[in-house]
Design brief:
By secondary structure, the protein is an alpha/beta fold. It is built from 16 helices and eight strands.
Length: 349
């Protein structure tokens, strides 16, 4: 007899202007009266002040308040040990590092976790994994879906444009990821969770209907990225949100002399992969044009040789992870596309 998989989803979701100033209310309602706060080391102090003021007003005590400098697994475990035993919940505030560390500590301590992103550069703020460094290499480690997601759209709207474009790039990867997932089903029998695929796919179209950089556009992008994270929890796999485009990005991390934002790499790789898959390339290209993504990449282009090497290495990153890159030798096609496609020519120096 098949046992149904239990899917965890956030119990508290607030995506609106001013949500940061109400975190204390949300915590107090759940009887989380003692929290540990982990925040990005370079975070604007005004955001920390607004959050702590909110907690103080609700009589929620901060037992530990720590800036996050490192993603090293060993240091995260040490931070977990430093966390007081009577903490009711963990709060992560800021960008990717703080959110990943807070999420993983909550997983180790089996405590509820509030994810409070201050930008929308990727879907990690509501995923069931934490990206940490293990023995010098970035690894995605199992964690838990946040108990709460508190996304202040006004705060995220004022984040730098490049972070917005990174989030857009990570979002369109769902097109190519779902296509790769279905290719894997037909070739190797990899199970496809239809509902998870539907959630991931639909979230992209929701944002594409109104891809404006205003409060409503931020709400739509934040909601879409949140649903992508939940789709991975539904399927018990990264497949709904991560395919060959992510393999290219991971390989690029290992060969690049200079790092770029994950979502920027994934966005360009998604367009490139869509050409290999023969679908969605026009949708992706048009969205990138409307949002200004192409111009952001052109302002700081990638190294062509590094990308070709990353594309060569990508299929070996996860040998059992079937994608379009597994179906044939794609390198000649990739090289031709980089040299001839009008959009891709803008991406490489």
């Amino acid at each position: 007899m098949l046992v149904p998989r239990q899917t965890t989803i956030p119990s508290v979701v607030r995506i609106k202007p001013g949500a940061l100033d109400r975190l204390g209310i949300y915590a107090e309602r759940e009887k989380f009266l003692r929290i540990a706060l982990f925040f990005s080391q370079d975070l604007d102090e005004r955001f920390i002040g607004r959050l702590t003021t909110s907690l103080d007003a609700a009589k929620v005590e901060i037992l530990l308040q720590t800036p996050i400098h490192s993603l090293a697994f060993e240091k995260v475990v040490d931070l977990s040990h430093d966390c007081p035993g009577n903490v009711d919940a963990i709060v992560g505030l800021g960008g990717g590092k703080a959110l990943d560390v807070g999420k993983y500590i909550s997983f180790l301590r089996r405590l509820p976790y509030f994810s409070v992103p201050t930008s929308l550069s990727n879907d990690g703020f509501c995923s069931s994994q934490s990206s940490l460094t293990v023995r010098g290499r970035r690894r995605s480690l199992p964690a838990g879906i946040p108990f709460g997601v508190v996304l202040d759209t006004a705060v995220c709207l004022n984040a730098p444009d490049i972070l917005w474009h990174s989030g857009v790039g990570d979002l369109v990867a769902k097109f190519t990821a779902v296509t790769d997932w279905k290719l894997a089903f037909h070739k190797t029998g990899t199970p496809v969770d239809d509902f998870a695929a539907l959630v991931s796919d639909a979230s992209v179209y929701q944002f594409m209907a109104r891809p404006d950089r205003d409060l409503e556009g931020i709400r739509l992008l934040g909601t879409a990225l949140l649903l992508n994270g939940i789709s991975m929890s539904i399927s018990g796999s990264s497949r709904p949100a991560s395919g060959s485009e992510h393999l290219i990005s991971h390989a690029l991390d290992s060969v690049s002399k200079r790092s770029h934002l994950h979502g920027l790499q994934v966005g360009v790789a998604s367009y490139l992969v869509s050409l290999l898959q023969g679908q969605n390339s026009d949708r992706i290209a048009n969205l990138f044009e409307v949002t200004g993504f192409w111009q952001t990449i052109a302002n700081d282009p990638f190294d062509r040789a590094e990308w070709l090497e990353a594309c060569r290495l990508a299929p070996s990153i996860k040998p059992d992870y079937y994608t379009v890159l597994s179906s044939r030798d794609c390198l000649p096609e990739i090289q031709r596309a980089i040299e001839s496609d009008s959009y891709l020519r803008r991406c490489f120096g």
